[in-house]
Structure prediction request, 96 residues.
Amino acid sequence: MSLFSKLLIIYLAVISLVAIVMTIADKAKAKRDAWRIPEATLMLVGLFGGALPMYVTMKTIRHKTKHKKFMIGLPLEIALHAVIACVLIFGELNIL
Prediction:
């Protein structure tokens, strides 16, 4: 396994944990009517690689499931990550 692969796995593990913790923390803050994590911050963490664990966590704890921004936006980010993974694994895609 290359150094890049090892670092990528570590990065994805960390960003996944951050996404899960942020989602759970935002739900707890919502229950206490406390200061919330901005939606843009949550979406940005998703874009940086935490979309799948964030989406699964939101569905599991029923947090923001009525917000189209998250229920459409996170799956779109997951699809983007899948395309990036395919490009990294299989090389450049020749679409034309």
About this structure: The mean pLDDT is 94.
